[in-house]
Write a structure and sequence with these properties.
This protein is mainly alpha-helical. It contains 25 helices and 6 strands. The chain has a 6-stranded parallel β-sheet, with helices on both faces.
Length: 570
């Protein structure tokens, strides 16, 4: 050919094989990521046939890392993390510590030096954002209490890994430079100062400048310019952070996403850049697969079994034990444990950085990649087994009801709750964005109410304010009984899940046939079905929004109802 087309060849082969292997993985009910990694192996130097340009693959992987981390930052919410911080923050940190200890212990037994052992343990400690979110979405668990805990846990893991990626080069200097401790301390201090300077600039200037720039571009009405602005912010901030502050591309892109989240156009930015982020994420996983030597699987199977055991069994048991130690139900422990029983993109990034800094042998990177393939494949099976396992435990453990409810101090009302508040009261189910507004209004009007909410920490905060509340699965008889549904005058359901609403109302009507039911809905069809199935009063979001806007217009323009001129003329 007249000119070099190695980049085009790599992208063409990578995407075509990723599609082929991704479809095969989907047919086998495995996450598509498994297929993307296999596509990378197929175009890598360890397999015969076409071999992609490794240097180009590395640069494509860097772009993939930027856009992946930008997406994580764009969806990062301190408010969501705050709701589950009491369990997610200590739980994630302790679980990372357990995984690091297990991984480092195994690597030490293999004769690896301590720095390599620690980096290897860190690679095994962080779950895949992509795998976890898609697994929860596929099973409709993302907005559940258990799903929010798992996502919050993962966010803390991601933050720790971002910090590790930033500090690892400094630690590499400490481990290999052989200089005096004082000089190492100065180097480490300078690194922290650069990180602090970058974060300060992003929080002080970037938080104001990036949303304003996005608003200016959005005013042009050009979709292409808007998308270009978002991508330029992600890649430009990441590159600038690396050049000016010597921090990783990952941290720069993550903060760019966090700052753009402050914009009113953050959801549009996320939606319109999703195809591009997905496209480069595929190239990232393909490029990771190119680094893998499949011979690791049959040349040293015992090490691979140990590593997979740490990821799938060790991390799962540690997460379950921590959730149970915080006195959450067994179902929550099983969901969180299964959600975190794999490793993914952060493990790949960290392993690659470890090899580049001569802190991790290439054999360690191969073990991490092999363990990721196996654990991601097994993760789907673990989630599938959740239902049968919970059912088996319910049948086999006679104390299961006690275990699920009474070990949680927030699963039943305190004995000193004023009885006058528990007769003729409003039972408010759900204390999210809608439920919180309803609860505030009831409290302001002096109307007694009891809140049933799946988020244990919200219940804890309500009780701290002196408001009666219980935690647990709100669509079960146990929770409704604890909320004294039998003596309630009205049931106000502020949760969005239609299936749970039907079951919940059915249980409530069985326990209290005279209770008045009020429900929220999202669309006309759903609202009509809920009216027919429950006989309750259904409020439709669009209708209430329109009524509120009409009421505001009438207040501002006068309350007289006059005929519109166009209507009169017709």
């Amino acid at each position: 050919m007249p000119h070099d087309v190695s980049l085009i060849a790599l992208i063409a082969a990578g995407y075509c094989l990723a599609l082929l292997f991704g479809l095969l993985a989907a047919r086998l009910r495995l996450p598509p990521i498994v297929g993307y990694l296999l596509a990378g192996i197929a175009v890598g130097p360890a397999t015969p046939g076409f071999v992609g340009d490794m240097s180009l693959a590395g640069q494509l992987a860097e772009i993939g890392v930027m856009l992946l981390m930008f997406g994580v930052g764009l969806h990062f919410s301190l408010a969501d993390l705050a709701d589950v911080r009491r369990i997610a923050v200590p739980g994630a940190i302790v679980q990372i510590g357990v995984a690091v200890v297990l991984g480092a212990a195994a690597a030490t037994l293999w004769g690896w030096p301590l720095p390599a052992a620690l980096v290897f343990g860190l690679c095994l400690s962080c779950a895949s954002t992509v795998v976890l979110l898609r697994a929860l979405e596929a099973r409709d668990l993302l907005e559940s209490v258990n799903g929010r805990i798992a996502v919050g846990w993962l966010v803390v893991e991601d933050l720790v890994m971002v910090l590790v990626l930033v500090l690892l080069p400094a630690f590499a200097g400490m481990a290999t430079a052989g200089v005096e401790p004082a000089a190492l301390a100065i180097t480490f201090g300078v690194t922290l100062a650069k990180i602090g300077g970058f974060i300060a600039i992003m929080l002080i200037i970037g938080k104001r400048a990036l949303p304003k720039i996005l608003w200016w571009v959005a005013r042009t009405g050009s979709r292409e310019l808007f998308t270009l602005c978002v991508v330029a912010a992600a890649v430009g901030v990441a590159f600038g952070a690396a050049k000016l502050f010597d921090v990783s591309f990952a941290l720069g892109a993550f903060f760019a996403g966090m700052m753009l989240r402050e914009s009113e156009f953050s959801h549009r930015a996320a939606d319109e850049t999703l195809p591009l982020r997905d496209a480069f994420a595929v190239l990232f996983f393909v490029s990771v697969g190119m680094l893998f030597d499949p011979a690791t699987v049959w040349e040293d199977p015992l090490r691979l079994v140990i590593v997979v055991g740490i990821v799938v069994i060790g991390k799962t048991l540690a997460a379950m034990a921590l959730v149970l130690a915080f006195r959450y139900p067994l179902g929550t422990a099983l969901t969180v444990g299964a959600a975190l029983a794999q490793i993914g993109e952060f493990s790949f990034i960290l392993a690659g950085l470890g090899v580049a800094l001569d802190m991790l042998p290439e054999a360690g990177q191969d073990l991490v990649l092999a363990a990721a393939l196996v654990s991601i494949a097994l993760n789907a099976a673990l989630f599938t087994a959740l239902g049968p396992v919970q059912q088996w435990l319910r049948e086999r453990l006679p104390s299961n009801a006690w275990f699920e409810r009474r070990t949680d101090p927030f699963a039943q009302l305190p004995a000193n709750t004023d009885e006058s508040l528990l007769t003729g009261h409003v039972l408010l189910v759900g204390y999210g964005r809608v439920g919180r507004r309803i609860g505030d209004a009831l409290e302001a009007d002096g109307i007694p109410f009891v809140t049933a909410e799946g988020n244990r920490e919200l219940v804890e905060r309500l009780r701290a304010r002196g408001l009666p509340a219980v935690s647990g699965d709100v669509a079960t008889a146990d929770v409704l009984i604890q909320a004294h549904v039998a003596r309630a005058a009205m049931l106000v359901v502020a949760i969005p899940d239609t299936v749970d609403v039907r079951r919940l109302v059915s249980i409530a009507r069985t326990l209290n046939p005279a209770i008045e039911v009020v429900i929220r809905s999202h669309n006309d069809t759903e609202a009509e079905l809920l009216r027919q199935d429950t006989g309750g009063t259904v409020f439709l979001g669009e209708e209430e929004l329109a009524r509120g806007m009409i009421a505001h217009v009438r207040r501002r323009r006068g309350t007289r109802r006059t005929t519109h001129p166009a209507t009169a003329a017709g």
